[in-house]
Design goal:
Blueprint (H helix, E strand, L loop, with lengths): L4 H8 L11 H18 L5 H15 L3 H17 L4 H10 L2 H16 L6 H13 L4 H14 L1
Helix pairs in contact: 2-3, 2-4, 2-5, 2-6, 2-7, 3-4, 3-6, 6-7, 6-8
């Protein structure tokens, strides 16, 4: 895993300054950053939300505990330094099919539900991310219902 945001940025460019294709780590960081956006959206970071985020990352990317801890720390740093969600959602749209993007939105709903309630800020950021992932209102609603049935 990459250790710092600066290292992440440096590895994204080659000598000709053209963007490289995202790899498994880039995709994991993009998904983790979007998950952290949901965790921090209500300005109250709950342990249950962090645990749910770690569990979803473990399932999605088959990472060790150490890799998950590293990825979450990097996602937090990346989230704090980012001004837009577009770059992260663009990577996921390029790398994942519609079904995989729906699964991510379901994971985002699971994270929001981890503390027992969905805050208006959480709802807003999930819908914003889902729109950037080109998902329909019906897909977003199905993902939410699926998450509720899993929580």
């Amino acid at each position: 895993m990459l250790k710092t945001f600066e290292q992440f940025i440096k590895t994204r460019f080659n000598d000709s300054h053209a963007l490289k294709e995202p790899d498994h780590h880039d995709i994991a960081l993009a998904a983790a950053t979007l998950m952290f956006e949901v965790v921090k959206s209500d300005s109250d970071i709950h342990l249950f939300e962090n645990q749910q985020m770690a569990e979803q990352l473990r399932k999605q990317f088959s990472l060790s505990r150490e890799e998950i801890t590293e990825l979450i720390a990097l996602a937090e740093d990346t989230s704090d330094k980012s001004t837009s969600l577009h770059g992260f959602t663009r990577q996921l749209c390029d790398a994942w099919n519609n079904s995989q993007r729906c699964e991510l939105v379901e994971d985002l709903w699971l994270i929001a539900l981890a503390d027992g309630k969905i805050d208006a800020h959480e709802r807003h950021i999930i819908r914003k991310i889902a729109a950037l992932l080109y998902l329909t209102d019906t897909q977003i609603a199905h993902a939410k219902e699926a998450a509720k049935s899993r929580s």
